[in-house]
């Protein structure tokens, strides 16, 4: 008996996978369990029934085509090819498509998104904005070639002409339609140029209306700062956009009728208000006349002249106040109309502002020049005064080589003005420009003799220094002048 063929593990798995290739496209129904999604977008889960369980792998390329969210406990039909994963030897189903069992994929995706947004509060009436009764500027987000825009233009032209209408063209069907609609809403909200936004599309199947059920559109409508009206499909069609918008219209034509009331309706309401005001005024005047006739025919007429006069004056004041109010409102409206019709009327005021700016700049330049000139003069005056003080300062005399001799006695110190006031052998102090010298008198002369050195050729004899009496102020200059104080103004050491 020949030996049986011995397979390697990889060979056996490859052989089994080749045998399983005949089940290339099969559909398996089961309940989802152990669902996980990797960072790369691959989905891993198992499907099971009451007796068995099967592992499923849905790669990212195929997972992007699934419209609904795969969740644990959901019954699905998985289409794919069975295979054995060589790395772990696990039997699995490589899925290429997943559909919900018993319910369409789009309908399931609609219900899942609706439940999630409802839990977040995007459908609450408290967060919805009020739609203006008579908007002046309207934006329409729709296809420029569809039937919806023609219906809207027809309704608006019939009900109220002269309203500003801007069409923001987008695709309303296809894979990129949802992103275009969301981008249009974000741009219109950022520009903030309109009073209301209409989001419209004609009727169609659930697949045709699906861009208005995408989450990106729902969140863009919720984040829009301008009131929105959704008119998508027919009256029986409901989309996520209808639920999130501030107001839902059953059709695009109904949206146009809601956003703009008919001119005839407004005129009728105004006429009704005018008639009501007239009736009220006439009723009050009639009551006043009846009361006046009653008072005139009564016996006690003499007791009510002041009351009649008071009522007449109050009526006159009310009439004047009414006329003034109407005149003021008319002037305000005329000014607003003039400002809106002729913006160039404000142009001379701008020129006047420019002239004032030039005048301010000229005055600033003149002030700066005057301050600079005055500051230079004051600086020159300060330098001149400082030079004069430097010339008469005793320190400047000492700086030229002169010195002052002081006689020192216990507790006193006085300048020596006469050689007769000292004796040979006495101790004296000699004050120099920097520092002092302690000296002893070795000899002296009696009489008036000049001890100044003879000036050299070209030298200028320093001026004689006269005794200066002490000033009351004790500044630096006063302390310098104390070096030449008279003998009767001696200071103790």
Order of strands, main sheet, comes to: 1-2-3-5-4
Give the CA-based shape: flat
Cα gyration radius (Å): 54 Å
**Can you summarize the main beta sheet?**
5 strands, mixed, barrel
Oligomer: single chain
Number of strands: 14
User: What string, H for helix and E for strand, traces the elements in order?
Assistant: HEEEHEEHEHEHEHEHEHHHHHEEEEH
Uncertain regions spanning at least 5 consecutive residues: 459-493
**Mean of residue pLDDT?**
82
Distance linking N and C termini: 143 Å
State the secondary-structure class: alpha/beta
Q: For the record, what CATH class of the largest domain applies? A: Alpha Beta
CATH superfamily of the largest domain: Succinyl-CoA synthetase domains
Instruction: Tell me the CATH topology of the largest domain.
Output: Rossmann fold
**Domain module tally:** 4
Helix content: 40-55%
In DSSP terms (H or I, runs of 4 or more residues), the helix count works out at 13
Proportion in β-strands: 15-25%
Q: What is the second-level CATH architecture of the largest domain?
A: 3-Layer(aba) Sandwich
Structure explained in plain terms:
With 493 residues, this protein is α/β, with parallel strands linked by helices. It has four domains: 9-103, Beta Barrel (OB fold (Dihydrolipoamide Acetyltransferase, E2P)), CATH 2.40.50; 110-261, 3-Layer(aba) Sandwich (Rossmann fold), CATH 3.40.50; 304-337; 394-441 and 464-489, no CATH class. Helices cover 43% and strands 18% of the residues. It is built from 13 helices and 14 strands. It has helices at 9-19, 60-63, 105-120, 147-159, 177-191, 215-223, 240-244, 252-259, 263-297, 305-341, 347-392, 394-399, 476-481, and strands at residues 26-37, 43-48, 53-58, 75-85, 90-100, 137-142, 164-169, 196-201, 228-232, 247-248, 404-409, 412-415, 427-431, 436-440. The strands form three sheets. A five-stranded mixed barrel has the order 1-2-3-5-4. α4 (147-159) packs parallel to α8 (252-259) and α5 runs parallel beside α6. The longest helix is centred in the last third of the chain and has 46 residues, at 347-392. The protein is flat. Residues 459-493 have low confidence and may be disordered.
């Amino acid at each position: 008996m020949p030996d049986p063929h011995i397979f390697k593990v990889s060979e056996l798995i490859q052989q089994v996978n080749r045998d399983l290739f005949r089940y290339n496209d099969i559909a398996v129904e089961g309940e989802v369990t152990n669902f996980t999604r990797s960072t790369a977008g691959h989905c891993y889960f198992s499907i099971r029934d009451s007796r068995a369980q099967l592992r499923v792998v849905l790669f990212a390329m195929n997972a992007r085509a699934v419209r609904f969210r795969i969740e644990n406990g959901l019954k699905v039909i998985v289409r794919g090819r069975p295979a054995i994963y060589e790395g772990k030897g696990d039997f699995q189903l490589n899925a290429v498509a997943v559909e919900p069992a018993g319910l369409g994929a789009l309908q399931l995706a609609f219900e899942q998104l609706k439940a999630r947004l409802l839990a977040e509060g995007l459908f609450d009436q408290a967060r919805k904005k009020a739609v203006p009764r008579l908007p002046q500027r309207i934006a329409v987000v729709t296809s420029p070639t569809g039937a919806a825009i023609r219906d809207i233009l027809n309704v608006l032209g019939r009900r109220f002409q002269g309203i500003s209408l801007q069409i923001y063209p987008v695709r309303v069907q296809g894979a990129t339609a949802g992103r275009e609609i969301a981008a249009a809403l974000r741009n219109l909200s950022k520009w903030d140029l309109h009073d209301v936004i209409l989001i419209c599309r004609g009727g169609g199947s659930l697949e045709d209306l699906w861009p208005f059920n995408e989450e990106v559109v729902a969140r863009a409508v919720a984040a829009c700062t301008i009131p929105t009206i959704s008119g998508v499909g027919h009256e029986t069609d409901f989309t996520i956009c209808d639920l999130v918008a501030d107001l839902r219209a059953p059709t695009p034509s109904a949206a146009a009728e809601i956003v703009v009331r008919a001119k005839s309706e407004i005129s009728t309401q105004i006429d009704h208000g005018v008639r009501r005001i007239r009736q009220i005024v006439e009723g009050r005047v009639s009551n006043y006349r009846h009361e006046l006739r009653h008072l005139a025919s009564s016996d006690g007429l003499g007791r009510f002249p002041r009351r009649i006069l008071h009522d007449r004056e109050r009526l006159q004041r009310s009439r004047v106040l009414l006329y003034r109010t109407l005149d003021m409102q008319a002037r305000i409206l005329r000014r607003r109309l003039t400002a809106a019709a002729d913006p160039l009327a404000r142009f001379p005021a701008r020129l006047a502002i420019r002239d004032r700016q030039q005048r301010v700049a000229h005055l600033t330049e003149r002030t700066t020049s005057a301050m600079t000139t005055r500051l230079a003069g004051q600086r020159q005056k300060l330098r001149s005064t400082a030079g004069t003080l430097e010339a008469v300062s005793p320190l400047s005399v000492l700086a030229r080589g002169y010195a002052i001799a002081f006689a020192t006695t216990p507790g006193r110190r006085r300048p020596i003005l006469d050689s007769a006031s000292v004796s040979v052998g006495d101790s004296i102090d000699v004050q120099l420009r920097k520092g002092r010298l302690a000296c002893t008198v070795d000899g002296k002369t009696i009489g008036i003799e000049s001890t100044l050195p003879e000036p050299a050729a070209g030298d200028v004899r320093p001026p004689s220094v006269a005794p200066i009496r002490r000033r009351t102020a004790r500044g630096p200059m006063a302390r310098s002048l104390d070096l030449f104080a008279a003998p009767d103004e001696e200071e103790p050491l």
